[in-house]
Amino acid sequence: MLNIAMVSTYPPTQCGLATFTRSLGQGMRECGIESDVVRLSPEHEPNPGRPVVHQHVTGQGLRDTLKVLNTYDTVIIQHEYGIFGGPDGDDVLNLMSGIKVPVIVVLHTVLAAPRLHQRYVLQRIIDRADALVTMTETGRRNLLRGYDVNRQKVHVIPHGAADLRAARGSQDGKRASTVLTWGLLSEGKGIEWGIEAIAMLAEANPELKYLVAGQTHPKVLETEGERYRTRLVSLAERLGVQSRVHFVNDYLDQKLLHGLIQKADIVLLPYDSKDQVTSGVLTEAVVAGKPIISTRFPHAIELLSKGAGWLVEQGDAV
């Protein structure tokens, strides 16, 4: 059996990539495949224990990290530009140069129009990886169109999610009353458009409520505090829907999140970005069988355009 190590953020770090890596490891174990984790961390922290076997502090030397990784048969790197040190996370290139075993890179972001240095970093990753995984056909197309890559190295494995369909209760034909958006809060999530839409529908559906669940992204909290959340609360008050818009300012563990999803009538993804090729929130909503309204970002277009949800334009509450 292959001895596999994954390089990624990992709980207690609070980010989507950490949650993804934990879920992937759990899924692999259910299939009889064991994997360990080399956890990326911005500072020295207590080791959370298995499956974490080593912690690499961003910006520190690589000797000990490489010594650990090179004892495995295969290394899987979860890649986002923001989790590695250096400009556009280019420290990952030194890491990959020192790994002597096959490397699989899971690309969570493949921009259609990257900045010059972002393109340079990803091209070097492509050159050094033995296999590349994207979670959408859009990501694969972006790679093949924008980079010098052997198409045989590129594999599409859709984003997974817990199956909540068996737990769904019947809505008994009642009018939809709860709209849910969840995830780490930051500029670009488009929550303001959701609040404006709730205000427009206030008369037509007096019971309609909008639940925005999730804490502010830790990196945003460090630099901006709760500025975005405060602005959203003020908007709800100005539009007279403060009693209809509720914020859950917590990092959502899986049990709490799944409870919120099951109780929701509609999932709203009002994201401003037109480049997002992967969304774990979207995948979980689709698997849960919830009606979805989403802006037209690439992953949503790919999953919803055949009738699994409604696609709307960015930046427009109507």
CATH architecture heading of the largest domain: 3-Layer(aba) Sandwich
Number of helices: 11
CATH first level of the largest domain? Alpha Beta
Query: Class by helix and strand content?
Result: alpha/beta
Q: What's the rounded overall pLDDT mean?
A: 91
Amino- and carboxy-terminal Cα gap: 54 Å
Overall, the morphology is globular
Which stretches are poorly predicted, pLDDT < 50 over at least 5 residues? none
CATH homologous superfamily of the largest domain, by name?
Answer: Glycogen Phosphorylase B
Describe the protein.
- The structure is a single chain.
- The protein is α/β, with parallel strands linked by helices.
- The protein has two domains: 4-156, 3-Layer(aba) Sandwich (Rossmann fold); 165-312, Glycogen Phosphorylase B (Rossmann fold), CATH 3.40.50.2000.
- Helix content is 34%, strand content 19%.
- The chain contains eleven helices and 13 strands.
Topology:
Elements (H helix, E strand, L loop, with lengths): L3 E5 L7 H15 L4 E7 L10 E6 L5 H7 L4 E6 L11 H8 L4 E5 L8 H13 L2 E4 L2 H10 L7 E3 L21 E5 L8 H10 L8 E5 L4 H7 L2 H12 L6 E4 L5 H10 L2 E4 L10 H8 L4 E4 L2 H7 L5 E3 L6
Parallel strand pairs: 1-2, 1-4, 2-3, 4-5, 5-6, 6-7, 8-9, 8-11, 9-10, 11-12, 12-13
Helix pairs in contact: 3-4
Short description:
This protein is an alpha/beta fold. 34% of the residues lie in helices and 19% in strands.
